[in-house]
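I am writing to request your help with a piece of structural work I have in hand. What I wish to show you is a protein chain and, alongside it, a tokenised description of its three-dimensional fold. Could you please explain, in whatever detail you think fit, how the structure tokens follow from the sequence? You will find the record immediately after this paragraph.
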Amino acid sequence: MVFWVVVGFGGLIAVSGFLLLFPFFGTNIWQMQIAQMVHGILALTMMAAMLAHIYIGTVGMEGAFDAMGKGSVDLKWAKEHHDLWVAQEEARTGKVAAE
């Protein structure tokens, strides 16, 4: 979801920024004011999404920060957050993971 927020809102921020960079190039005062509001609202929303993503990825979810540092998680965490992946790995290896 964060990827699509960045791609979608980033593209719209670029378009509105282009309109603000070249004033009155195909726009009037009213359209420039709309572009200014859209640019600011999208930028603030994208920054809020980034901050929420950083929070959840570090201290907001127990075990996430350790997973990034070590590159591995315990089985309980994996089953809680990625149960389909655990099932695929169990099917691929033929082993049933014990808790």
Notes: The chain is about 80% helix and 0% strand. The mean pLDDT is 87. Helices lie at 2-21, 29-60, 64-70, 75-81, 83-93.
